[in-house]
User: What shape does this take?
Amino acid sequence: MPLIVARHGERVDYVDTEAWLSSEKGKARPWDPPLTERGVEQSKRLGGRIVEELKKHGLPPVTAVYASPFTRTLQTAHHAVDAMGHKNLSIHPEVGLVEALVEDWFRSWAVPDADCQWGGPSKKETAALAHEELHPAALRGVAGYVDDIAELQKCTNKLAVAYASVCPMADRPVVWGQWESYDASKARAAAVARRLNEKHAGETVLLVTHGVPVSGVHESLTEQESGLVDYTGLRLYVEGGGGKFNVIADGWQHIAGLYFASYRDVVFPNGKEGMTAARHSCVCLWPQLFPCALFRGALGNFPCDGVTHSVFCFRCRTKSLA
Assistant: This one.
């Protein structure tokens, strides 16, 4: 039956990094920002889009919701559920859908001078850091990255507080220096998606997670590469046989007009959506001088995911991942 996988909405630390890192929660949990007001609106539109797509394809409404137990994903799920009109649906905090706990993630918040940028300060500068120089949470393991139930309930009043994860990770030694690989994090999210889909046979399931897990699920279900997925981007899958799934809805048309001022919409001649690398308030001139619309004419129709610009502006592409 239908499986919907969506990324969270716009996160506050990518809009006002300084304010977030100087806040009480930003100091304690710098990896766990809430949504911006725009992110809340994006999440509401996500809910509306889900209803539209399910009706269009003659599919049943969502009856099961799971979200990564981070603030931004729980808030996204909360507002999407409200917008779907399902006031009594519970949101299950599934730790197996948590962010990719890779080295780049740790470096975005755990090292001195980290500024929430995926990958953080250069590895050369931080290679020999003593444990005392790291954010203390970097050594706590998975249980330390997920807030307690009382705090999670502040994100949503729909939380399924007694839920037990299908992918218990509390005992995994994912700490500074023993991080997940990208492949492992993708495989973990994909296994959880398949397990939950099987658990709710005959139902429509919504999973709200992060950029890398979204890609991992897609690559596992379809055996095709996944481009980057923007805020509240969704993919609607139906089983196609042999363990493979077909994508019958994909994109983020529902948040048109809710981008940063520097975002550029790009619609390719083949109908595919794309956006320039400037979509994350890029500070370099390269994508401003050579937006993807220009590359499109020279290189043909290709899905723009920022890779074209990554050599010139690392910040553009990496901010799309978390």
In short: The radius of gyration is 19 Å. The chain has a mean pLDDT of 81. DSSP finds 13 helices and eight strands in the chain.
